[in-house]
Amino acid sequence: MGSYLLRRVLLMVPVLLGTTFVIYAAVYALPGDPVQALAGPDHMVTPAAAAAIKAHYHLGDPFLVQYWHYLVGLLHGDFGIDLNNTPVSAVIEASWPVTVKLALMTWVIEAVVGVALGFLAALRAGRATDIAVLGGSSLILGVPYFITAYVAQVFLGVKLGWFPVSGTDDGWPLSYLVPALCLALLGVPEISRLTRASILENLGADFVDTATAKGLSRARVLVRHVLRTSLIPVVSMLGTNLGYLLSGTILIEGIFNLPGLGYQVFQSVQQHDGPTVVGISTLLVLVFLLVNLVVDLLYGVLDPRIRLD
Amino acid sequence: MTPPPRGRVSRRTGVVALCAAAALAAVSACGAGGSEGTGTKVPGGSYSIGVPNWYIAHLTPGKAGFSGVADAIWTPLTQVGRDGKVVNAVAQSVQSTDQRHWTITLKSGWKFQNGEPVTAQSFADSWNAAAYAPNTMSNGYLFSNIDGYAALNPASGKPATDKLSGVQVVGTDTLKVTLVKPLSMFPYVLAGTAFAPMPKAAFKDLAAYDRLPIGNGPYQVAAPGLAPGGQQITLKRFDGYPGAKGKAAQITVKTYQTDATAFTSFRSGAVDIATASGNDLSTASRMYASQLVTSPTAAVVYLGFPLWDKRFTDVRVRQAFSLAVDRKAIVTSLLQGHAQTATGIAPDVIAGGGGTDCADCSYDPAKARQLLAAAGGWNGSLTLWTKQDPDMQTVLEAIVNQLRTNLGITSISLKVQPTDQIYPDLLAHKTTGPFLLYMGAAFPNIYSQADQLFGSASGTNVTGYKSAGFDALMGQAAAATSTTSGMQFAQQAGRTAMADLPLAPLYYPVSGAVHAKKLSGLQLGYLGDVDLSSITVR
C-alpha cells in the first residue's frame, strides 16, 4: 500500500510536467498578439511600451526559455503574475471556493441521482420505469448542457423567479443549485446506465443467491451485497467524471457569471493571459490526478479482493 | 466586494452531507425568495448596474477604459455636455492663440476623495505616469501629441526622463501645455479619462491604486475596491464634489462576462440597469418599452477596402461594392430598426456629423454591376473579414449574400478573427479582402472620426488610405482658431475621403439600456454609456 502510493505520487511528476508543457505551448500558439491584447484592440503600443511589457512577462524570449522561467517559478510555489499585474495565486485563492462548491454539489447530485435512477431501473428492468430512465437519459445526452443551462436560466430564473439567474450574491447553496443541476446533467445519464448494467450483472451472481439462501432480507441483499459490489465501476466513473466536470465549469460559470476557476480561465484565454490559464489548468490537472488516486484507493475499501501493491 | 465564504468548504465529508441536505431545503424554500434588486436602505437610494468586465478591470486614468464608471470616479479638466459641446469642468479656462501652446487655469475648491486639493501638479503627475513607457499604461498613446512624448517612448532602451517636457506646472492652478502639432480640438481631448488627475497618494503604490482609485469625480470607490478575481465594486457618493452631485447615494457595479448574461440578470431583477444590444435590444423594446432608453451611437460600422490589394485600387470597384449593399434591409430586418443607415462617417449626435458625404451609400444594384463591369469585372474568389462579434458576423453574412446576388461574385467566403488579431493583421496588410469593422468617435466631433479612420498617423486607419488633399484639410482643421471652424475643415476633409471611398459606411449603431421601474433620469452618452450620476432612485 505504502509503496503503491509512493509510486503513484512519483508518477504524477512527469504527468504534471507534460501537461504544463502542453498547456503552455497551446497558450503560446494562440493566434493574436498578447501585447496588443493587453493594451486593448484600439490602443496603440509604442515600441518602448511593448518592450517593457515583453521584458516584464518574458514575452520576447524563445518559447523554451519562457517555459523554463515559468517552471522554475512554479517549483518555488509561484504561479507567476497575470497580465493585470495580479499574482495568479491571488486569483486562484479568490476563485477556488466557487468552483469547489459548484463541483462538489454537482458531484453529489450526479452520484445520488445517477445511482438512484440506475438502481430503480435495474430493479424494474424492461418495465416502464426502466424505459423512462433509459429514454430520459438519451434525451439528456442529446441536448448540449449549455443549451439546457440557458433554458433553465430563463425559465427557472426569469419566468418563475425561483432561483438567482447569475452571480453568487445569494450565497451557497441557492446561487449554485441551478448551475450544479445543469452541470450534473453531463454525468447523470452515464452514471445511471452504468449502475443499471452493473446491478443487472450482479443480480444473477452466485454470491447473491448465497446471500438470499442464507435467509437475508431482500433489502439487505440489495443494499449490502448487490449495490455495494455494483458501485465499484461507478466509483471509477465518478472519478473520471470530475475531469469533464471541471472543464464543464468553464462554460457553466460563464453562463451563470460565477467567478470561479472556469470563469477566470475563459476570461484569460480571451485576454491571452497565459500565466492565469496555465496556472489554473495545472491546478485542475493536479486535482484530477489526486481524485483519481483517491478513487483507486477507494477500490480497496469497496472490494477487499482488490489489493493495491 | 465580498469574498465568497470559505470556511464551509474545508472538510469534504461535511460538505457532501450539507450539500445534499441543503439542496433539498433550497428547492422547497426558494419559491418564496427569488432574487431581489439591491436594497434601498441608504438615504438617497442605491441601485446596481451590470457592465462588461473591462469597465472596472483597470481603474487608473492611464489604463481605464472609456466608460460611465470612469466618468463617475474622475472629472477631467473639461467635459462633453449632453448637446455634444465641450464645457469646462475642473478647468477655469483653456486658452491658446496658436493652438499649439495652451494655458489651462484651474477652478479653486476641487478636492480628491481623500481630501487632497486638485492642483495643476495632480494633472501633470497623472499625464507623466500615463505617457511613461515602462508604466505600460494602455492609454499612453493618447499623449503622443504632447511635446516630450517621444523622449518617454524611445524606439529602444529605457527613457532618459519620466516627465513630459511639454507639460509645465506654473503655480498651483496653472498648467502650460505645448503640443507637437497645433490641435484646435485640444479642449475635447482633455475631456478623456486618460487626462484625469491623480493625487500624490496614488504614486505610493500604482498597482493598489488601480484596484482602489482615489478620484475627484461625483462617486468614490468604496474599500476594498476590486478584489483579485472579483466581480463587483461599490461606488459611494462623494459629498465634497463641487460639481453637480450624484443623485443616488450608492451604486453597485457588477461585471458580467457577456452582455447577454447581464440582460438576463436584469430580467430576473438581479441588477437594476443593463445595456442591451443585438437581439436583447429587440427583446427590450418589446418587453420593457417604458424602461428602455436608446440613443444613436457616435460610431459607424463600415466595410473597409484593402487598398494595398490591387483588385481594390480602382475606385469603381469600391463604389460597386458600396452600391451593392442594401443598408436599409440590414437595418430594418437584421437589426430590427436598432440602427440608422449611414450616409457619412458619423451620425448627427456629434458636432459636424450627420452629413450626406457618401454619394455611393445608396442601394443601386444595376449601377453597381455596371461599375464593376467597367472596371474589368470580378475574377476569382473573395474573402470578407470581421472581428469576433455575433452582430457583426450576422451582418457580414447578409453582405455576403447581397454581393453574391447583386454583383454575381460566386465564390465568397467569410473569416472571423479576434479583435487583437484583426487590427495587427490589417496594419501589416495581411488581410486579403474587405472587412467589416466598427469605429467609435474618441470625442464627439467629426474631426475625431475623420482622423481615426483616414489620418495618415492613425493606428486605426486600417484601409491604408493616404491622401495629400485630406491631410492638408485636416492640418487646417487642427490649426483652426476654434473648435467650430476646425469642425468645418474636418467636414470638408471627410467629404474628400468619402469621394475616394476607402471604406463604405453602412450604418450607425443604436445603443440601449434598460432600467428598473424604481429608477428615472437615465441618460446615455454619445457612445451609449450610462451616466451614473444623473439617475434618481424613487
From TrEMBL, chain A:
InterPro entries: BPD_transp_1_N, MetI-like, MetI-like_sf. The chain crosses the membrane at residues 9-30, 104-124, 131-151, 171-188, 230-256, 276-302. GO terms for cellular component: plasma membrane. Coiled coil: none annotated. Its main location: membrane. GO terms for biological process: transmembrane transport. Residues 96-299 form the ABC transmembrane type-1 domain. Gene3D superfamilies: MetI-like (1.10.3720.10). It is found in: Cell membrane. Keywords: Cell membrane, Membrane, Transmembrane, Transmembrane helix, Transport. It is a multi-pass membrane protein. PANTHER family: DIPEPTIDE TRANSPORT SYSTEM PERMEASE PROTEIN DPPB-RELATED (PTHR43163), DIPEPTIDE-TRANSPORT INTEGRAL MEMBRANE PROTEIN ABC TRANSPORTER DPPB-RELATED (PTHR43163:SF7). Belongs to the binding-protein-dependent transport system permease family. This is Peptide/nickel transport system permease protein/oligopeptide transport system permease protein. It comes from Actinacidiphila cocklensis.
Automatic annotation (TrEMBL), chain B:
GO terms for biological process: peptide transport. Transmembrane segments: none annotated. Residues 1-31 form the signal peptide. GO terms for molecular function: peptide transmembrane transporter activity. GO terms for cellular component: ATP-binding cassette (ABC) transporter complex; periplasmic space. InterPro entries: Peptide/Ni-bd, SBP_5, SBP_5_dom. Residues 85-458 form the Solute-binding protein family domain. SUPFAM superfamilies: Periplasmic binding protein-like II. Keywords: Signal. Pfam families: SBP_bac_5. This is Oligopeptide ABC transporter, periplasmic oligopeptide-binding protein oppA (TC 3.A.1.5.1). It comes from Actinacidiphila cocklensis.
